[in-house]
Amino acid sequence: MHTFNVNGKAVNLDVEDDMPLLWALRDELGMTGTKFGCGVAACGACTVHIDGVATRSCVMPVVAVAGKSVQTIEGQGDPILAKLQAAWVEHQVPQCGYCQSGMLMAATALLRQTPHPTDSDIDDAMTNICR
Is the pTM of the predicted complex or chain greater than 0.70? Predict the structure, then answer.
């Protein structure tokens, strides 16, 4: 049994230790906002926050998040995420939209850590790939 917090709520999952967090979120908890892209942590479509750190969930085993806090794109109440989502819509950023949840999560983590990032900060933090 794996116990951790997702978007402010405690969850208990009876899954294999090595199940990637991505599949636990999508298949076990029905949270499909986090996307599968590459499966090797290269594209960032699966980005979530684990204890506030942007993390690629496709390679993160569930056992590694025991007792931790996970935030997904479905999480409510994050003012930085809400502002970014509004800006994304206002500036018509999405094309197909597949990679957007991971990009939003990466950008939220960046702005939480560095409220006024330089171009270099953005380049270093935003390594997500558009599908």
Answer: yes
